[in-house]
Amino acid sequence: MLKKHFYYGVFKFNNEFYQGTHEPIISKKLFDSVQQVMNSRGKKKRKRKYEFAFSGLMRCRNCGCMITAEKQKGHNYYRCTKKKERCDEKYLREENLIEQMKNFIQKVSVPDKWAKNARRVR
């Protein structure tokens, strides 16, 4: 009800807005301030204590849940959130994760010949 443009004298037809001939119940300014309040409601974003390089980028290979990170004893650890079901996947230190990523990237990198050709095309 609070999102209806009709109350400030405008109506929508075929995805276009038109000025109505009816008398508005509220002002456009009041409507806009109500929309602003409604848009700012909801979940507040938590301020994070730490920023993690790989947070939000990976899913667990066993259950498909997101991987989360936490700092323990001066090291960053990544683990499954286990939100869907019980998951036996263990945590992984960031250093080990970086090493795994390096190994994976080396396996899928382009051959030198392709890289040389790509540089020539530029």
Brief summary of the model shown:
This protein is α+β, with helices and mostly antiparallel strands and 122 residues long.
What does this structure look like?
The structure is a single chain. The protein is an alpha+beta fold and 122 residues long. Among the domains are: 5-40, no CATH class; 48-94, no CATH class. Helix content is 31%, strand content 18%. The protein has three helices and five strands; from the N terminus they run ββαβββαα. It has helices at residues 28-40, 94-108, 112-121; strands spanning 10-13, 16-19, 67-72, 75-80, 92-93. A three-stranded antiparallel sheet has the order 3-4-5. Strands 1-2 form a two-stranded antiparallel ribbon. The longest helix is centred in the last third of the chain and has 15 residues, at 94-108. The radius of gyration is 26 Å and the shape is elongated. The mean pLDDT is 86.
